[in-house]
Structure formats: structure tokens, C-alpha cells
Amino acid sequence: MKTSFSVLIFICSALLAGCEKPITVEGQPTGTNGREDKIAPIDTVSTKYMTVAEAQGAPVGETINVKAYIVAATKTSMGNAKFIPPFNGLNTAIVLADEPVDTIHFQYLTNERLFPVCLTDYKDVRSALNLENNPQLWNRLIYISGTKQRYMSCPGMKKVQGWNMGE
């Protein structure tokens, strides 16, 4: 009887220990499995940043740092990118350019001058940077780091690792 009670205590202890919240390093992504993500701000002074044109030429799979303006929002393709507010329903990607857009000449922008950024890898990135919920970020300078990938059939960024808003 004493042995089975000891085994029962051991099993209960093991189950309780397995239910603990995982320990994470502050500022590091924890994934998208229901836990809150933490993305660290990045150093905007000593880090070397690329333009959109330079980022497009970077090797796929490389971590890159880009300094650009958030000029549009999109959901499924660059063809439905919207360059003028409101950005209703467009909360899964932002589009970067080397200069802010104006409301008259935005239609002359081509994919060679644009860089889409996926916001769906980490929920805190999506909530902080999507233009549907944060229209004040439109035409704002951003310093952003992530993995260069093909995204929306063109060069883009996924797995955002950090960002800071510029002045």
C-alpha cells in the first residue's frame, strides 16, 4: 500500500511539473501556440540597415535589417495592397518602401520598389504593426529585422525578430 501511494505521489508530481509555464528569455518570441509573444526592440544606432532595394537583393533565408516606411497594407497578394487609409480587413501584412507615399502618386509604385512583411508569424507583431488597427503607422519610418523570404510572389520578410519606429 505504501509503495502504490508513493507511485501515485510521484505521478502527480510529474504531471504538475509538466504543466508549468515554460521559461522564456524576456524579449524573445515564444511562438504562436496561445502564449503571448515577446519581440525585442532593435538597436537603431549601431545596426547596419538596408534599403528596400538592398533587401530585395539579399540572399533568401538570411536575417536582414531594413530601414523603410510603412506605405501600405495587404492580405493575400501585392495586387490588393492598399496605399491610402482606411485599411479595413488588411491586417496580415504591411508593405515597405524607401520613401513615404503621397495620396496622388502611389499608383506609380512597382513591386521593384516595395517590400512586403508578413505579420502572421507572431501575434504581438501582428497586433503592433498592422495598419488596420494602427493607422497612425502609415508612412512612418520603421527599423525592422527578420528573415528574407519569398512572400506574395516577390522578395519580402517573414519571422520578424524585432522593430523600432523611427521619428
Overall description:
The chain is α+β, with helices and mostly antiparallel strands and 167 residues long. The chain is 18% helix and 26% strand. It is built from three helices and five strands; from the N terminus they run H-H-E-E-E-H-E-E. The chain has helices spanning 2-18, 52-57, 123-129; strands at residues 63-74, 93-97, 115-118, 141-151, 154-165. It has a five-stranded antiparallel sheet with strand order 3-2-1-4-5. Strand 4 (141-151) and strand 5 form a beta hairpin. The longest helix is centred in the N-terminal third of the chain and has 17 residues, at 2-18. It is globular and about 35 Å long. The termini are far apart.
Write a concise synopsis of the structure shown:
The protein has 167 residues and is an alpha+beta fold. 18% of the residues lie in helices and 26% in strands.
Query: Which structural class should the secondary elements be placed in?
Result: alpha+beta
Q: What would the principal axes of the Cα set say about the shape?
A: globular
Classify the helix fraction into a percent range.
10-25%
Q: What is the count of β-strands?
A: 5
